[in-house]
């Protein structure tokens, strides 16, 4: 990509990607602990089933809120190889306007159902796996609750997430980037891929997908733990008597 399209191609769709992550993450990650508390009715002890349910809930909620940002990101990244006048969108905001004008408001929510499925799976694999691995590391005294523990748990969670979510991710991307009318639904898209390309098609791009998921998980969870710890300290200092 760098050789044929230049270094900037690696950051194609960055603005849409930032919009997506800021809206998705604020819901699916920010509300995860709150949903666990809601399902356990205030208890600190959450079973694996409760964690999975909380992950599915916040994952689905995030898609309903932020699906347009994902559609624009996928479309924008797909047109990077198209030259000049062949490009459908001149910028991120133009992409929102063009999709809404040509395909209707529903076009911005294209692929919403497979994306809900995908995000629920990713959220469960990502958050629940991280939760469990971190808990096991601390339980067996392999590490203390600090940076190396967070890094190890996040990296392992990234691998598990890639294995579980790759098939759904491939179908979602193929369906969302398809021409209008090519597939009558996400299941049709998946069946067509299986029939024409075989089961290996669902794991196309596994290595770059793992590199993305692994690095994303490490940055996200390490940052999340440090920010949460900092905010907890700040809250304690505010509440402490003078």
Automatic annotation (TrEMBL):
GO CC annotations, alphabetized: mitochondrial inner membrane
GO biological process: transmembrane transport
Membrane topology term: Multi-pass membrane protein
Short name of one Pfam family: Mito_carr
Entry function: Antiporter that exports dicarboxylate intermediates of the Krebs cycle in exchange for phosphate plus a proton across the inner membrane of mitochondria, a process driven by mitochondrial motive force with an overall impact on glycolysis, glutaminolysis and glutathione-dependent redox balance. Continuous export of oxaloacetate and related four-carbon dicarboxylates from mitochondrial matrix into the cytosol negatively regulates the oxidation of acetyl-CoA substrates via the Krebs cycle, lowering the ATP/ADP ratio and reactive oxygen species (ROS) production.
Keyword annotations of the record: Membrane, Mitochondrion, Mitochondrion inner membrane, Repeat, Transmembrane, Transmembrane helix, Transport
Protein name: Dicarboxylate carrier UCP2
PANTHER family in the record: MITOCHONDRIAL DICARBOXYLATE CARRIER-RELATED
Subunit relationships: Homotetramer. Adopts an asymmetrical dimer of dimers functional form.
Reaction catalyzed: oxaloacetate(out) + phosphate(in) + H(+)(in) = oxaloacetate(in) + phosphate(out) + H(+)(out); a long-chain fatty acid(out) = a long-chain fatty acid(in); L-aspartate(out) + phosphate(in) + H(+)(in) = L-aspartate(in) + phosphate(out) + H(+)(out); phosphate(in) = phosphate(out)
Source organism of the structure: Muraenolepis orangiensis
Subcellular location: Mitochondrion inner membrane
Family: Belongs to the mitochondrial carrier (TC 2.A.29) family.
Main location per the UniProt record: mitochondrion
Solcar repeats: 1-38, 46-136, 145-230
Domain of life: Eukaryota
Keyword Repeat: yes
